[in-house]
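User: Hey, quick favor. My workstation is busy. Could you predict this chain's structure for me?
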Amino acid sequence: MYFDIQGQIESNLNKIDEIMKLTKDRKVLIAADTNARSKTWHDHSTNSRGKKLEEFLVAAQLHIINEYSERNTFNNIRGLDVSVTVHHIYK
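Assistant: No problem, here it is.
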């Protein structure tokens, strides 16, 4: 999934919620570029989008299985996009 940085993150979180309802009682792996920053997935800071995503993950009892990486894939003034920007989430 791609979460547009200009869009409201809540609409994307609702889509994940719908996926979880459709896959009830099954394991699911979701990969997403969320354009959300959080120390939880090894960024150097947490922004409001990251905080909302963190809260959603906790409430939905979802887990992030990213690993820290030194390899940058993109870096600009808005932040550092590392390989862990793709979030693998499962329940």
